[in-house]
From TrEMBL:
It holds the Pfam family DUF2282. InterPro entries: DUF2282_membr (IPR018740). The keyword Signal applies. It comes from Magnetovibrio blakemorei. Keywords: Signal. This is Signal peptidase. Residues 1-30 form the signal peptide. The keyword Signal applies.
């Protein structure tokens, strides 16, 4: 393997990671998804909230303003889940 190939490998891996992460993120604005507040575990919220700047920054479990995108109708079935920030 050449030096150029070795140098390109980490760049390719990083690009693939970014691409796969973006593909894995759910579009909360999709018609079949809804924001379910009060159910996110610390560090596992989707998107920014009133108290955090980006996804994965909820400081504690069940943070009132943190949400997780779930299929429409699912939030009502989850204990502690609500469609409005608490």
């Amino acid at each position: 393997m050449s030096v150029k190939s070795l140098a390109k490998a980490p760049l390719l891996a990083a690009a693939m990671t970014v691409a796969l992460s973006a593909a894995a993120m759910q579009d909360v604005s999709a018609a079949d998804m809804e924001k379910c507040y009060g159910i996110a575990k610390a560090g596992h919220n989707d998107c920014k909230t009133e108290t955090s700047s980006c996804a994965g920054t909820a400081k504690m479990d069940h943070e009132a303003s943190a949400f997780v995108a779930v299929p429409v109708g699912t939030c009502a079935k989850i204990a502690g889940g609500t469609l409005k920030p608490m």
